[in-house]
Design brief:
With 325 residues, this protein is α/β, with parallel strands linked by helices. It folds into two domains: 3-184, 3-Layer(aba) Sandwich (Rossmann fold); 205-321, CBS-domain. It is 46% helix and 14% strand. The protein has 15 helices and eleven strands. The chain has helices at 6-29, 33-47, 59-73, 83-86, 113-122, 136-140, 162-181, 186-192, 196-201, 205-208, 224-234, 254-259, 269-272, 286-296, 316-321, and strands at 52-56, 78-80, 99-103, 126-130, 143-146, 217-219, 239-242, 248-252, 274-275, 300-304, 310-315. The strands form three sheets. It has a five-stranded parallel beta sheet, with helices on both faces. Strand 6 (217-219), helix 11 and strand 7 (239-242) form a beta-alpha-beta unit. Helix 1 crosses helix 7. The longest helix has 24 residues, at 6-29.
């Protein structure tokens, strides 16, 4: 690395170490009074009939937006209200039954004054997250989340860095504590994250599988001419073979066709099929299905019901389409 970059690297390493030390101090504080306050905050939010209104100005405001988004995506209804906009009509977004969480390292942010006054006037619980216990915000709050008193990592004491790192971590801690208290499940999380890689990873087989008339199925006594026609029509490259009770008895793949090429059209599906094929239950994660298909070097899996009757078919292309694979 060029020598002129060395000072930047040294500064970056120092900043990261100081922020890591701040997070360690925050963890220690949660074992004491800060932990008691966080439990009070969680109880107040769980008891609220409304939403969590999160607010902050400047860099604290950016952290507040992220905390609101994390709360909302993990089962705690929340949204961000900009304190300046609150003074120009957005106070109407706050109702009795809500809980307000205000972030300000100094605890003296003037733009928060109207919002704080509104909570006091209408009896809306106010949780403060700040770095000074004697600040105006902390004195007026019902519950105070006091950050450890540590210098900012900039070395000048003016650039929010250590303080915002602790705010973000404490917001995550509160959100996840609430998530666990609500018994928030992976299914709930998937409902709030239907898009992107995260949503794909949490998709169930039943969400992606083909079913009904789309399934390529023939009975065991079907002639191979019929089985070949179904393979061609359905377009999955395979056909499932069912017994007299409708249970999945086997599967015919291109490998089976090659192995029985001689006299193929004189045979029945039950003679050509591979018995006891790999299957997957409908409640399994699609990611699990991809892993199974990759391990077995196959391109699709039938999805049986508890009685063994095929109710769906998952193809590797269905998983690739949503970002898995």
């Amino acid at each position: 690395m060029p020598t002129e970059l060395a000072p930047a690297r040294q500064t970056a390493a120092r900043v990261v170490r100081e922020e890591a030390q701040a997070l360690s101090a925050l963890g220690d504080a949660l074992a004491g009074l800060l932990g008691d306050s966080l439990e009070e905050a969680a109880d107040a939010i769980l008891a609220a009939r409304g939403r969590v209104i999160v607010s902050g100005m400047g860099k604290s405001g950016h952290i507040a937006r992220k905390i609101a988004a994390t709360l909302a995506s993990t089962g705690t209804p929340a949204h961000f209200v900009h304190p300046a906009e609150a003074s120009h009509g957005d106070l109407g977004m706050m109702l009795r039954g809500d809980v307000v969480l205000c972030l300000s390292n100094s605890g003296e942010t003037p733009e928060l004054a109207d919002l704080v006054a509104h909570t006091r006037r209408f009896g809306i619980p106010l949780i403060a997250m700040a770095g000074r216990p004697d600040s105006s915000l902390m004195r007026r709050a019902d519950i105070g989340l006091l950050l450890p008193a540590l210098p900012e990592a900039c070395g000048l004491g003016v650039v929010p860095s250590t303080s915002t790192a602790m705010m973000l971590a404490l917001g995550d801690a509160l959100a996840i504590a609430l998530m666990q208290a609500r018994a928030f499940t992976p299914d709930d999380f998937r409902d709030f994250h239907p898009g992107g890689r995260l949503g794909a990873r949490l998709s169930k087989v039943r969400d992606l599988m083909h079913k009904g008339d789309a399934l390529p199925l023939v009975p065991e006594d079907a002639p191979m001419s019929e089985a070949l026609l179904v393979i061609s029509q359905k377009g999955f490259g395979v056909v499932g073979v069912t017994d007299m009770e409708g249970r999945l008895a086997g599967i015919v793949t291109d490998g089976d066709l090659r192995r029985h090429m001689e006299g193929l059209l004189d045979r029945r599906a039950g003679e050509v099929m591979t018995r006891a094929p790999r299957t997957i239950p409908p409640d399994a994660l699609a990611e699990e299905a991809v892993a199974l298909m990759n391990a077995q070097r196959i391109t699709c899996l039938f999805v049986p019901d508890p009685d063994g009757r095929p109710t769906g078919l998952l193809h590797i292309h269905d998983c690739l389409r949503v970002g898995l694979g």
